Amino acid sequence: MKRREFITLAAVATGISPLLKACASSRVIGGEIVGASAETGHRVRNASLPDAGENRETRVLIIGAGVSGLSAARQLLRKGITDFTIIDLEKNSGGNAASGKNEYSAFPWGAHYVPLPNNNLTEYLAFLEECGSITGWEKELPVYEEMHLCADPQERLFLNGRWQDGLVPHFGLAKNEQQQIKAFLSKMDHYRRLKGTDGADAFGIPVHQSSTDAALRVLDNITMEEWLHQQGWNSPALHEYVNYCCRDDFGTPHSIVSAWAGIHYFACRKGTAANAVYSDVLTWPEGNGFLIKHLEKNIRTQLQLNTVALNVKQKEDSVTVLCYNEATHKAINIKAQQCIIAVPQFVAARLLKNGSRIATTAAHFHYAPWMVANILTEKPAERSGTGPSWDNVIHGSSALGYVDACHQLPGNPLVRNLTYYKPLTDDKPVDERKKAQSKTHENWCNEILQDLSKIHPDIREKVREINIMIWGHAMIQPLPGFIHGPQLAAAAQSVGGNIHFAHSDLSGISIFEEAFCQGLYAADKVIAAIT
């Protein structure tokens, strides 16, 4: 099995234009734009606050039921603390690891896999045992459930009019481009094994355990594109290849991503197992929603959804949070001894009504918007080359292709859910958010089907419905100077002894392991304060 490799986006396959014209059909595609709850979240920005008609108390209040908030709740429960409440503005928990389902299968609404974990992540590995993803141990190495390891064929690339196996292009590339890609991958493998002068991994998970070696951290001061040029690598194919990776993992082009972050993507994975290698991935029909279900299963009585926090007031011995329940249309005051704010920093700053924090966040914390579409379709016609895979990418597309949510299921169903991903990177994030909100369901469907018609010429006729999710602030952007900068470190510090923060944006990289660890850190601070 191969891990997600990487793609160059140097040219569009020939013969596309007639296909695009052919798919200009008047057929109406079913479905809708389903979220996320931007209108509810924007209540936090309102100047006036409602009066609370009810008062409640809890020992610990967690604001946000994404991965970090749920991880914090799990840790509290493991340490014997059961008097806590976790709130979230959405109808379902999970944040950008949320999922959905229909009569054919479950499907992801965001993150859809996790790479094989590094072996130093002991709490994370224990959690994967709880999930059944680790079934045992052999010679101190984990044994992964075969049904959770991504099945072959794992990935393919549509390039020069045909499908090829894997996402690194090897069909029709000039020898010079092949040599540069090989040299780049060799350099990334060097960084994967490299230790800093302090003995720590050059690029580790969690991020804060990476080497503090100044010769490595200087990479955070330039962009990934600049670093490639410094190495003398000017191949358009290589640059497009790296650009795809940065847009895939950070929602951000390589022309503005920190070189340290870009290299981290390639060099941070070092996990070993009895039946898998570091490049393997774990996935499920619902994507990381599988992990969310396990995180929340023991805390459902403490989980209060459809509830948005509006204001956080701190006293020396308590924290009072004004909340609004969208289902009951009532405002509630929740008083807690300890509070974990497990939401993005731009939201946390507004909850605290802290002008300095709001300004710092606006200046230094930038978030990438995404569009995710779940496409219910009969099996479409295929182009020549490698057959259908889990991950299917179109060379030259501004989107990232689609994953087949039915890939891990037995059999070969005739009707499938395909999850299509597109980071919105043409303009600045704020402009992309405005453009995304202005588009209709029909606009999005036409855009998606034009793209997919390059690889499935009859897709418009086969599609039954398309549902759209707009993630306005899907993930933090690791721009130069951010990950190792003072603003990120300062934002992670607790306020007094009773307000703590937990979110993947405090790592500078939006991956499951970082969010999970941020929840652990915050929970441990709470435990230290109350025990």
Describe it for me?
The N terminus is likely disordered. The chain has a domain of 147 residues: Polyamine Oxidase, Chain A, domain 2. It is built from 17 helices and 21 strands. The protein is 31% helix and 22% strand. The longest helix is centred in the middle third of the chain and has 19 residues. Helix 3 crosses helix 17 and helix 11 runs antiparallel to helix 12. The protein is globular. Strand 7 and strand 8 form a beta hairpin. It has an 8-stranded mixed β-sheet with strand order 1-20-16-19-18-17-9-10. Strands 2, 3, 12, 13, 14, 15 and 21 form a 7-stranded mixed β-sheet that branches. A two-stranded antiparallel sheet has the order 4-5. It has 531 residues and is α/β, with parallel strands linked by helices.
Annotation keywords:
single chain; 531 residues; alpha/beta; Polyamine Oxidase, Chain A, domain 2; 8-stranded mixed beta sheet; 7-stranded mixed beta sheet; 17 helices; 21 strands; 31% helix; globular; disordered N terminus
Brief sketch in words of this structure:
Helix content is 31%, strand content 22%. The protein has helices at 16-22, 38-41, 67-78, 122-131, 175-193, 214-217, 224-230, 236-250, 259-267, 289-296, 345-352, 355-364, 429-438, 441-452, 459-462, 486-491, 512-530, and strands at residues 33-35, 54-63, 84-87, 99-101, 106-108, 114-115, 134-138, 141-144, 155-159, 162-165, 281-282, 303-304, 307-314, 319-325, 330-341, 367-378, 391-394, 402-404, 415-423, 463-476, 499-501. The strands form 5 sheets. An 8-stranded mixed β-sheet has the order 1-20-16-19-18-17-9-10.
